[in-house]
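Re: [ENG-882] Designed sequences occasionally contain unexpected residues at chain ends

Forwarding the minimal case from QA. Structure tokens:
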């Protein structure tokens, strides 16, 4: 089947069968599987290597070796392989090019990822947006504006396809023709929650769905916690829009910190239930304060000078203007940079008498207008 051969990329059907069988060996998780693969070279070799040789690998004991001899695992693997082929599922092995680059560096990243749709991970601008399932109007408006402001940079928006913040983020991404990926806590033979089925077709056209779970796996509570490491690990940064003092989005934020990823949190009033989690992340310095898209652009050091020539849907998303109308604050900064030359953001804020949170937003607007440009080392200069 031509489509299947295209989708499994570097793997042939035989190797995929053995990898699936390896996943069904009781006691073999992602970390142990990677140890075995490192020692043996490929999945087929693991099953054909003598037990005496495998026993020399750290963490491989007699019980696990006996489990490798269980022939029923291949029956299960063959059934899953059939599902993959019949449903044109894309399979990404953790060493393949189609596997999320950031996730490759997470020791507990899934051995295999299953995806459906049209996912293209070539761009490095991948951000996860998470939060409460009981999103407020404040959170909704902030999420929509954030994605709207980031749209010219064409980032991939990752979330969990759940109620609340997740689905708002996916919808906003689709409204701006951004690729969006739903990392789900079940197999690709179902959609949860079922009320979100109406979004599936559109998401699959530009993005789609990703999971580590086989077909037939239901959205159990523990699966949601497990999938959070994919959401955190595959992204350059995780953004928490709203969260109570406990919740899955805080687990994702903590995982992102463990993976040495940037975390952002939207502040809120101390009396607001669904701002407590975000406020605590900021207070304990586990998240950057997020007030606008400019904060993300600045902290992640995203280059937006090239937006002017970035074509998406055949049109330039931002065009430099020969004559730019600047606001008073923007004019003040422009005149300063024109006179002083290249300056870092902190110095610009100090010399022009603006707080950091405000100048980040002003500089982003000026970059989009083509009045200034960012340089390495987080310097800026007038054009």
């Amino acid at each position: 089947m031509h489509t299947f051969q295209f989708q499994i990329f570097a793997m042939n059907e035989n190797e995929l069968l053995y990898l699936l069988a390896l996943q069904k060996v009781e006691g073999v998780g992602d970390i142990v599987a990677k140890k075995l693969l490192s020692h043996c070279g490929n999945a087929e070799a693991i099953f054909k290597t003598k037990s005496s040789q495998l026993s020399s690998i750290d963490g491989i004991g007699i019980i696990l070796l006996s489990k490798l001899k269980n022939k029923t695992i291949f029956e299960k693997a063959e059934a899953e392989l059939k599902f993959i082929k019949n449903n044109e599922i894309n399979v990404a092995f953790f060493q393949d090019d189609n596997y999320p680059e950031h996730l490759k560096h997470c020791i507990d990243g899934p051995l295999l990822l299953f995806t459906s749709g049209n996912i293209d991970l070539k761009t490095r601008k991948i951000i996860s947006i998470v939060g409460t399932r009981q999103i407020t109007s404040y959170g909704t408006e902030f999420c929509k504006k954030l994605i709207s402001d980031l749209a010219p940079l064409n980032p991939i928006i990752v979330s969990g396809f759940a109620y609340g913040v997740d689905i708002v983020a996916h919808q906003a991404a689709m409204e701006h023709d951004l690729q969006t990926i739903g990392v789900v806590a079940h197999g690709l033979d179902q959609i949860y929650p079922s009320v979100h089925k109406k979004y599936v077709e559109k998401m699959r056209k530009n993005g789609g769905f990703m999971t580590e779970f086989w077909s037939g796996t239901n959205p159990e509570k523990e699966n949601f916690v497990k999938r959070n490491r994919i959401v955190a690990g595959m992204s350059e940064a995780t953004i928490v829009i709203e969260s109570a003092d406990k919740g899955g989005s805080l687990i994702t934020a903590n995982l992102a910190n463990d993976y040495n990823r940037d975390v952002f949190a939207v502040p809120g009033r101390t009396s607001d239930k669904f701002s407590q989690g975000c406020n605590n992340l900021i207070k304990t310095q586990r998240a950057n304060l997020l007030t606008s898209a400019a904060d993300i652009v600045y902290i992640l050091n995203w280059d937006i000078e090239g937006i002017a020539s970035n074509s998406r849907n055949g049109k330039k998303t931002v065009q430099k203007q020969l004559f730019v109308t600047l606001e008073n604050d923007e004019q003040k900064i422009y005149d300063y940079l024109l006179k002083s030359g290249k300056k870092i953001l902190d110095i610009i804020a100090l010399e022009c008498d603006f707080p950091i949170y405000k100048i980040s937003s002003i500089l982003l607007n000026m970059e989009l207008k083509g009045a200034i440009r960012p340089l390495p080392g987080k310097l800026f200069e007038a054009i």
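QA comment: On inspection the terminal residues look reasonable. Residues 15 and 26 are 19 Å apart (CA to CA). Proposing we downgrade this to a documentation issue.
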